[in-house]
């Protein structure tokens, strides 16, 4: 079974740097986890009016109102099949600020219906985001967020982008430093830059039986709509 990212990119997956292929190329049958550890050289947020939205994000481990430099962090990617039979990859980021630990949780699936990657944000998969992916010139990966949908029980709607932001994520391998690099910026077409971070990390690959995937990296609730 190929990974959800191979499925989306098709032949373009082979254009990725081999180290990036390794990061994005495993699925649940591989029983493999990618654990990244490194330093966020900069974590930032935009103007003061963004703070209430960032505080709200902490309720479900989506975003947070801290900023800083040289912040230790980890990123945990586990592949498994969720309760709806969907191939799923965790994206659990942990940032060790001086006064507290912050998390940004997400799970990605491949939607047969939309023929896209869907990124479910937070602990309860309230927010579903369509993701476009492409290969950039240095062999890295570019992820760009698109339409967003909010779900709570029977209630759901397309989230108005006036009150949200578009995310641009670049991940690549720095051959000179022999480290993975990441740069993230979330912006709103009217209000400008909202939140972001950039840094470097190393990756350790672990063999993990599916029943031993830590429960705290999985969502509390899974949402079947996509």
Structure write-up:
The chain has 226 residues and is mainly beta. It has a single domain, classed as Lipocalin, CATH 2.40.128. The protein is built from 3 helices and 11 strands. The chain has helices spanning 4-9, 18-24, 51-57, and strands at 32-45, 68-81, 87-96, 101-111, 116-121, 127-135, 141-152, 155-158, 166-174, 179-188, 192-207. The chain has a 10-stranded antiparallel barrel with strand order 1-2-3-4-5-6-7-9-10-11. A hairpin with a 2-residue loop joins strand 7 (141-152) and strand 8 (155-158). The longest helix is centred in the N-terminal third of the chain and has 7 residues, at 18-24.
List keywords for this structure.
3 helices, 9% helix, Lipocalin, 226 residues, mainly beta
Beta strand % = over 45%
Specify the number of helices. Answer: 3
How is the biggest beta sheet arranged? 10 strands, antiparallel, barrel
Number of domains: 1
């Amino acid at each position: 079974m190929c990974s959800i990212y191979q499925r989306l990119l098709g032949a373009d997956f082979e254009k990725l740097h081999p180290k990036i292929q390794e990061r994005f190329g495993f699925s649940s049958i591989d029983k493999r986890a990618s654990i990244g550890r490194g330093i966020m050289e900069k974590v930032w947020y935009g103007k003061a009016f963004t703070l209430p939205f960032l505080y709200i994000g902490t309720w479900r481990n989506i975003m947070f109102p801290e900023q800083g430099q040289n912040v230790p962090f980890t990123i945990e990617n586990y592949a498994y099949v969720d309760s709806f039979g969907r191939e799923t990859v965790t994206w659990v980021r942990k940032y060790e600020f001086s006064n507290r630990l912050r998390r940004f949780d997400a799970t990605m699936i491949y939607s047969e219906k939309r023929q896209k990657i869907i990124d479910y944000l937070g602990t309860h998969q309230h927010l579903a985001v369509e993701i476009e992916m492409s290969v950039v010139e240095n062999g890295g990966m570019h992820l760009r967020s698109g339409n967003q949908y909010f779900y709570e029980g029977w209630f759901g709607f397309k989230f108005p982008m006036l009150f949200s932001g578009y995310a641009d994520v670049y991940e690549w391998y720095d051959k000179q430093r022999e480290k993975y690099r990441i740069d993230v910026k979330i912006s709103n077409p009217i209000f400008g830059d909202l939140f972001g971070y950039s840094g470097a990390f190393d990756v350790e690959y672990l063999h993990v039986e599916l029943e031993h995937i830590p429960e705290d990296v999985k969502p509390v609730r899974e949402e079947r709509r996509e």
